[in-house]
Amino acid sequence: LNKQGTPFGFFSQSLDGRVDGFAVLVDINLREAAFSRVMAYLEEGFFLDQYTKTLSVELLTYNGQHRYLCALVVTFTFTEGGQIEIDYSTNTADVQPYFYDRNDKGAERMFNLRVGMEAFFVLLVFLMLLVEVMELVQCVVATGSVTGYFASLWNYIDLTSIALLSVCIAFWGLMLTRFVTFTTLHRYDVYLDNSQAARLLEMGQGGSPLRAFVGMVNDFNTIVNMQVLYVTFHGVNIFLCLLRFLKHCDFQPRMGVVTRTLSRAFLDLVHFFALVAIVLGIYTFLGQIVFGSHVQQFSTLAKASRTVISWSLAGDDR
Q1: Rounded-to-integer distance, Cα 188 and Cα 25, Å
Q2: Which residue, 49, 61, 202, 286, could crosslink 192 as a Cys pair with Cβ 3.0–4.6 Å?
Q3: CB burial class (10 A; 0-12, 13-18, 19+) of residue 31?
Q4: Is the pTM of this model over 0.85?
Q5: What pLDDT does 300 receive?
Q6: Is it the case that residue 318 has pLDDT exceeding 60?
Q7: In the predicted model, is pLDDT for residue 7 greater than 60?
C-alpha cells in the first residue's frame, strides 16, 4: 500500500465531469486471454464482487459508411433478490452533416439543394421577424401604444415561434463549430503495458491518454445534449407553426371553422387540461408513495409521472 492506503496496483485519476475514482478503460486491441487477465485483475481488486451494486459500461463506436458516432451506455444493476436489471441508452450524432462524395453528382446536387433550402429558411425567419416588427410599429403609430399589439394571443404565438426558430438557427451554428473542432483517435494507449505480470492498470504518460479519451467523450456528450435541445425546440415549434397556420386560415369561411371553434372553446379547454394535470399529478404522487418501494416504474417521481402519462395516453398498463 502507498501512504494513502491505496494498493500500488490501482491508479486513481481526476477526470472532468466524472466522480474521482478508479476508472478502467478496456483496450480495443486486447485478445481473449489478455481480456480475461484484466477481468480477473478487476475481481481481485474488488472492482467486481458479490457486493457490486451497479456496473456501467460505455462504448463509443463509429459507422464509417454513414459517418455516425454512437455512444452506448449499458448499466447493470444487481438487485438484492439476485436479479440483474439491464438498462441502456444510445445517442447518435452525424459529426459530418455536410459531407458528400465529390465524384457523386447526385450527392453534389443534394448538397447544393440542402444549402439553398437552409439559406432560404434563414431568410424566411428574418422576413417573419420583420413582418412582426412592422405590425408592432403600425400599432404604435395608430394607437400610440404597444398595448393593442400584445392584446392578441396570436401575436404571442408568432413571437414565440420566431424566437424558437432563431434559437434553433443559433444552436445549429454552435453545433457546426463543435463538429469542426471534434476530433478522436482510433485508439487511446492508456496503459503502460497490458502484458506485464503485475500492475496491469499502470497508466502511461501520467494518465494523459485517459484524460484525453474522457475529454473526447465529454465533447461528444455535449454535442448530443445540444442536439436534444435542438430537436426539442423544433418539436415545440412545429406545434406553434400549426397554430399559426390555423390563424392564417381564419379568412376562409370553411377553413376558418377550426380556428373559430378553438377560439370559442379556449377557456373550456384550459380548464379541462388544468383538471387533467391535477388528476395526473395526484395519481403520480399516489403511485410513488404506495408502489415506489417495489415497482420500478414508480420508484421515483419522474418515473411515476412518465408511467401515469403513458398509461393515460396509450391505455396500456402492462
Answers
A1: 9
A2: 202
A3: exposed
A4: no
A5: 86
A6: no
A7: no
